[in-house]
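Exercise 7. Given the encoded structure of a 370-residue chain, write a plausible sequence.
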């Protein structure tokens, strides 16, 4: 599909986001981490977690007091192979960055390392953290809970978050095997993206209290905030198409995200108190790093992983299909397409960028769509 949206240069967008974060009280070093995480989503074509979420998920939450701009990291427990960290309701991306730096160092020394973070906030795409490990020749695994939006199998009440479970593994190819997705069929961010684009959500992804699937994106977002609609786990309604499998994976992430650090879970993560007023989300994240050198060796691992991926892509294709992909390939191709062009931004994002610039007096910035 031909891209019709205007592009904004990567460096321009990066600098602008850092300056805006700093204006909102985020220390500049932390702001650089946050901007890179958001832009990495757009580099990979995961627009549901990129610039689309800059204002509503981060800036607006700083403004309403449910996200603290300064991240006070506290190490609650540390061993040669583990770390438990309290983010104290600061930037989840900042806490996760420092967690991964620690775990990578440990895994290089002892072979494996794991960590959990409590009292955190949205940490961006999980694949950013697992890729940090992969870039060092390691295997990265991560997941996070989130505000309740997913119903259990045979249920209609939003109980658990979209709960991604992500793996990134080095290969001998130009890109890693990077499996980064939610354990439900569609994420909140995707529905927010549909709503911004004025599009319906495809049928079969969201269920209402009557057990019917619904498609009006704006109404879905409103109803989910009121607990009147819920996302469906991978596999969809009931058990016929394996919905219980997605339900199980979602539950695994919920348990690991909360139980490893003793943090809150499910309805306690909805970001509202009993009176409906905004409160801290207090999310939990988990991370594991594995060093292939402590097993059959990195070179062996990379070649085997690469051979598996190549074998899959070269297998017989379904009629009418000219290509088979492996996880991480489409994201790599997205970057190849966008790296010399910039970030594509739609009308809603254009408006937000201009309003932020004017509100904060960042007059040195001029966008190509003006």
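Solution.
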């Amino acid at each position: 599909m031909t891209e019709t949206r205007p592009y904004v240069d990567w460096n321009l967008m990066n600098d602008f986001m850092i300056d805006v974060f700093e204006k909102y009280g985020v220390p500049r070093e932390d702001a650089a981490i946050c901007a890179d995480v958001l832009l990495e989503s757009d580099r990979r074509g995961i627009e549901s977690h990129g610039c689309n979420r800059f204002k509503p998920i981060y800036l607006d939450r700083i403004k309403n007091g449910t996200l603290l701009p300064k991240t006070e990291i506290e190490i609650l427990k540390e061993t040669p192979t583990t770390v438990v960290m309290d983010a104290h309701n600061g930037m989840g991306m900042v806490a996760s960055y420092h967690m991964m730096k620690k775990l990578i160092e440990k895994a290089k020394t002892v072979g494996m390392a794991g960590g959990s973070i409590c009292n955190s906030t949205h940490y961006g795409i999980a694949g950013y953290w697992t890729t940090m490990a992969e870039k060092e020749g390691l295997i990265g695994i991560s997941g996070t809970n989130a505000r309740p939006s997913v119903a259990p199998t045979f249920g209609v009440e939003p109980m658990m978050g979209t709960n991604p479970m992500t793996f990134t593994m080095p290969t001998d190819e130009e890109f890693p095997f990077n499996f980064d997705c939610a354990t439900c069929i569609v994420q909140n961010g995707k529905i927010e993206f549909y709503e911004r684009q004025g599009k319906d959500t495809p049928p079969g992804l969201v269920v209402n209290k009557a057990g019917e699937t619904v498609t009006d994106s704006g109404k879905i977002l409103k109803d989910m905030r009121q607990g009147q609609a819920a996302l469906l786990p991978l596999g969809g309604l009931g058990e016929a198409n394996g919905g219980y499998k997605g339900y199980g994976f979602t539950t695994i992430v919920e348990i690991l995200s909360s139980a490893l650090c003793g943090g809150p879970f499910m309805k306690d993560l909805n970001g509202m108190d009993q009176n409906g007023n905004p409160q801290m989300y207090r999310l939990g994240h988990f991370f594991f790093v594995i060093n292939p050198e402590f097993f059959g060796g990195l070179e062996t691992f990379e070649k085997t992983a690469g051979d598996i991926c190549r074998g899959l892509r070269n297998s017989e294709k379904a009629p009418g299909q000219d290509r088979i992909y492996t996880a991480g390939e489409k994201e790599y191709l997205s970057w190849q397409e966008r790296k010399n062009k910039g970030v594509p931004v739609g009308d809603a994002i254009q408006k937000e960028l201009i309003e932020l610039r004017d509100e904060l007096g960042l007059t040195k910035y001029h966008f190509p769509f003006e």
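Remark. DSSP finds eleven helices and eleven strands in the chain. Students should compare their own answers with the one above.
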